[in-house]
Amino acid sequence: MVDFTIMVSLKGRSFLTLLDYSEEEIRFLLELSKKVKAEKKSGRVNRRFSGKTLALIFEKRSTRTRCAFETAFGEEGGHPVFLSTQDIQLGVKESIEDTARILGRMFDAVQFRGFKQSAVETLAEYAGVPVYNGLTDDFHPTQALADVMTLEENFGPSRGKKLCFVGDGRNNVARSLMVVSAKLGIHFTVVTPAALNPDPILRERCGPLAAASGSRITISSDLAAVEGADAIYTDVWASMGEEGKKEEKTRLLRPYQVNQALMDKTGRPGSIFLHCLPAVKGEEVAADVIDGPQSRAWDEGENRKHTIKALMLATLGLENA
Ligand code: CP
Ligand code: NVA
User: Fold this and answer.
1) How far is CA 10 from CA 36, 78, 87, 158, 173, in A?
2) CATH code, domain carrying 129
3) Any domain includes 11
4) Which one is catalytic: 137, 164, 235, 275?
5) Does a structural domain hold residue 13?
């Protein structure tokens, strides 16, 4: 196995879309995540974030992402500070640029979860410290790391595996899965009604990346496209901020529920089910699938913490501490 630790340094880097990370850099984060998980399981206690501070800005709700950042940082001696938009002036009485400048002087890193991708990019431009995208309307890159980690825990190297996203092909999770798949040589199929086909601009950006890595990206409205999938992945029909579109999206996506009949269409008894969570059982996924033997959604949720810890270690230059 290649020792990526010798070749890669991510110190000082932000993590905003994954588009600016090379295959080697993503692989480095995945290998570090596996190491971090193994250390945790062995009971080893580290203090690698001792003396460090992390700002956690949340415009939208979160269970996993917030808890992953807070516990990963805090359990190794770091001091995370949770800042909801009820607490700070971000873009209200103060520009995002000015908030970023001040946070960068008080914190070693900043996490942002919210609506606009431009907000997290502005924070990164002005903070002068690593900024992590914990989900925007456009991308959910830390989720994609945990997803590939989970895929690899089940099937070994992800290159050449078939990952099938069934649901809203335009949403943040589907978009980040397309990026990570194109980078790592994963065959990625989006099964979605034509009205929710992935954004053509992103498809165009991913095209050359996929050609370079050997990934095949396929878009289909036909459920038969899940044939041969190693993993079927879904997400809620209406994302945070889309509450007004719930009815329309439910109508479009109802035929795309992941149920046992759809899992069986893969033709692979060893195929697994993935979901970023939170899930609405009975809508995008049948309860017997997410709670059944093919589901790896709970491992995937746990892996958010290990991948996020690895990301923070690497971007703070602490992976060898
Ligand atoms: N998957 C995910 O981001 O979960 P939360 O919304 O609970 O953070
Ligand atoms: N697409 C979902 C993901 C939640 C983790 C949302 O944005 O609400």
Assistant:
1) 16, 19, 31, 22, 23
2) 3.40.50.1370
3) no
4) 235
5) no
Q: For residue 215, what are the domain limits?
A: 143-301
Asked whether residue 202 falls in the same domain as residue 242, the answer is yes
Is 254 one of the annotated active-site residues of the chain? no
Mean pLDDT for 76-96 is 91
The total of structural domains in the chain comes to 2
Has residue 65 been placed in a domain?
yes
- Reply yes or no on whether 276 is catalytic: yes
Q: Give the tens place of pLDDT for each residue, 241-297.
A: 999 999 999 999 999 999 999 999 999 999 999 999 999 999 999 999 999 999 999
What is the number of the ligand closest to the CA of 240? 2
β-sheet with 231-234: strand ranges across: 217-220, 187-191, 162-166, 231-234, 272-275
Distance 212 CA to ligand 1 centre (A): 31
Q: Are both 309 and 225 inside the same structural domain?
A: no
Q: Whose CA is nearest to atom 7 of ligand 1?
A: 63
Per cent of the chain over pLDDT 90 is: 95
Please pick, among 275, 296, 304, 306, the residue that the annotation labels catalytic: 304
Residue to probe by mutation, ligand 1, list 56, 63, 236, most atoms within 8 Å of CB: 63
pLDDT greater than 90 at residue 5: no
Phi-psi region of 150 (alpha: psi -120 to 50; beta: other; left: phi over 0): alpha
**CA–CA distance, 13 with 270 (Å, rounded to integer):** 37
63 lines ligand 1 (CB under 6 A): yes
Give the global pTM: 0.97
Q: Are residues 24 and 165 in the same domain?
A: no
Best probe residue, ligand 1, of 58, 61, 65 (max atoms within 8 Å of C-beta): 65
